[in-house]
Amino acid sequence: MTSAAAPEYPWLLPGALASPTKVARRTTRDWLVDSHCFLLALGWLLVAVADARRPAPEIALNTGPAWLIPVDTVLGVVACGSLWLRRRWPVGLAVALLPLALVSATAAVALLIVVFTVVVHRPFPIAAALVGAYLVTTVVFNQLRPDPVMPFWLAMVWTTVITGLVMAWGMFVRARRQLVLSLRDRAERAEAEQQLRVAQARQLERTRIAREMHDVLAHRISLLSLHAGALEFRPDAPPEEIARAAGVIRGSAYSVLQDLREVIGVLRTDTDGGESPVPERPQPTLADVPALIEESRVAGVRVTVSDLVAAPETVPAAVGRSAYRIVQEGLTNARKHAAGTAVAIRLAGAPGDGLTVEIRNRWPVGDVPGPGIPGAGTGLVGIGERVNLAGGRLEYGRDDSGDFRLAAWLPWPA
Hints:
The protein is an alpha+beta fold and about 425 residues long. Among the domains are: about 10-150, no CATH class; about 285-414, Heat Shock Protein 90, CATH 3.30.565.10. The protein has helices at about 30-50, 70-80, 90-95, 110-120, 125-145, 150-235, 240-270, 290-300, 315-335, 380-390; strands spanning about 305-310, 345-350, 355-360, 395-400, 405-410. The chain has a five-stranded mixed beta sheet, covered by helices on one side.
């Protein structure tokens, strides 16, 4: 049970029976209810005492010996005062006041309130046992102090009916409170589950952003390294080439900073559940592959393309984005690990047959000149996960001819 429900109905918690003394402090509503119960019991006490002192004792309420009237008054005051303890020790108080039900008429309402408290706060077996005990005491009471205007059997019927009504009312109140707690618990659990789903969606989105950033940054940083290496090994290049390479470096660096700014902004605003103030840039599709290839050609990579895709405009966006990332990863790996080699890209497919993406480059011979471009070694792992999630197949490694081959098949519904 949640902590929010505990202060209002602590007796309905699972541990209430094991440690009944652990109750919450009275609320304003509890003070009002307890005050009304005390005043109601005290009012009955005054009515009973006044009735017992009437001039015609032969018709007074449950008369008895003269000494019994002050004793009964004292017992009634004790019963009324003990009502302030009924929330902390309902069962113990009911058992302690049980002997009063044998002789006291002034404590009748206070005893009914205690019985009602037990029915509301404790399980049915305990409440039923105490109610049965109180009904037994009424038999003795009606024998010791018979009503002067009502036969014994009619007095017992009235007593049983009133006690039964009090017990039924208490059971109704207990059932209603349990229902309220159950509904509140369900609402809080649903809210917690919704927050968990939001957190999971947020984590999945962060993971997706991390994958996208790996692909994008690895591609752009490899271009930066390639152009910077060209400037390092050819310091005597014509000014036009140097200017063109510097422009490419500047543009790639600016794009990298843009991407980093986007992902940092998303991660910052994501912590409080808000939306990013900067709209996410459109994701690349199959139509952006030619621009990606041209970017590598400008960087000096020899790329040949065989495009056999039928109706490329009908390729689903998710499939086209995966194809773009596969080509991007193949070009990045070729620049990292096989600098100077030619790269062959083949795209083929049709609706219903699937989309095939193949990138092939010669295996490098000897050491790569200059310092190698560091990598995390997770690019192909991420591509493999992306392809698996799309329901496709991925193959990579050296083939029989000695070339490195990266090939993927992606489903393309008809």
